[in-house]
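Entry for the shared binder. Reason: the reviewer on the internal report wants the predicted structure included alongside the sequence.
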Amino acid sequence: MTLFEKHQARFEQAQQACATRHCWSPYPEMPDKYPEAAHAKSMGLAAFEQHLKNGRFELDQPGIRNWIGEEISPYTQKALGVVYPQSDINTLFDVAEKAMDSWAQAPYTQRIGVLMEVLEVLYRDHLFEVLHAVMHTAGQSYNMAYAGSGVNALDRSIEALVYAEQAMRSVAPSAHWSRRFGSSEIHLQKTYRLVPRGTAVCFSCASFPTWNAWPSMMASLATGNPVILKPHPATVLPMAITVKAFRQVLQAAGFDPNLVTLAIDTTSEPIGKVLIKHPKTAIVDFTGSVRFGQWVEQNAHPALAFTETAGCNTVVLESAQDLDAALRNLATTMCLFSAQMCTSPQNIYIPKSGVNTPQGTVPFTEVAQRLATAVQALTSDPKKASMILATIQSPQTLALLQDLQAQGQQRGQVLLSPQPYTHPEFPDARTSTPLMLQVTTQERDLYAEERFGPISFVIACEDAQDALKQATQDARSQGGLTAFLYSMREDFIAQAEAAYARAGAQLTINLVGAMPLNFAAAYSDYHVTGLNPAGNATLTNLAFVAGRFGIVQSRRPVTPESGSTP
């Protein structure tokens, strides 16, 4: 049985889910539902702790010239003490190019079978190990590291493989072509080859290292390209585990493990621009800051660049059937992982006259205060806060909180002041409750860019039309991945849908209940539109994979009688 045949049933289920966009996942959604959960959790924690004990992450890849590492756990605020091999960049490109030959010649179904096996190994042997690695580098909570950085990332990876297969399957391998030219009948045998673009450089980000990187790697590898993975210096461990798993499966399947290598750096000596401008770089996948993402888009050429950065995610609160339910949902979404998610809402636009409800109009100041109260209810208890807020990934975020609080006191009203909370399991954890500021549209310079972390602005607008105009302007000018609307008016909802569509932001309307507003479901939700400055690529669709290979043809004459070459 081939690896593709081994995983074919699951792959076909994923194809069906992508076609119908319905809810499906082959993975359990909660850690306790994982098969033999207690044993898996124990083994995963032991594997993570062994990395800390070893201090040196052994990775058999060429060109090693140094060992470096600077990760600090947001939970303990102590160095992990793990160092990783730093290889010569030119060597990594050379071995990647060499490894590509046999990989590109393999049938694409064979490649997909090997990559499905990689995902099975990550899930079966490394999921809880990755979970702890993500917790102690990115700072996510246990459950979010399992879901967002574990099984959801696996789902998105299968999704990328589905679209890669669809794109490659659409190209006929050969054709017999005939046409009359004057008195002659010309018959040609045409052959079409799928040719990979070349070496891909994949950047993983600090806050969600696996969620974008895994599907990006799958998209490149499935279409025949090798991958050099460049993790953020703060979150190397989960990606080093990833690279090791890829290499082991590739080698066991008879392929050169140098199809996947690790390229690391430090914050003081970054190598990102060197990798992007390397003459052998053919593809760049970048997830991270807006500033560097814009540089990537402007400078990656002739490499093909796929970016997801960030933006100002907005809320328009015009009216609500159940205002308290809407505010509870907003509060929960604003607090998840301390708003260190690319889909976290930041700018909340409300008419200065207030929000209409079946019980009457609730004044603007009361809406703002009730939202602040809802956030405070989620964060006042340390146990609850630890599950929702988790930790602050970077000390720079704490500095930003203090700076914006000071500006908010001078130019608006501080609805909530950020305070550290004591994590019940990790008393030294880097934590903060949210900062919430009430301002007007005159303070646009404060909020018209992404303010990474638990920071939000409640903004008074002239009316509902002004609120919608301001919000969609954010998406168009600064970028926006997601947007949220509450309204009882169908005419206003239709207007908002059209306006946000033009602004290229995904819109969620009147959602209340247990589901977080910014939850993005694999096989169903398109993540990023590529239509505004928040990124140029959608995860995942055909465009995410189709450009990673080209089609080269050859043709030769055949005789009509025999079908053979003359």
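Summary line for the report: The chain has 17 helices and 19 strands.
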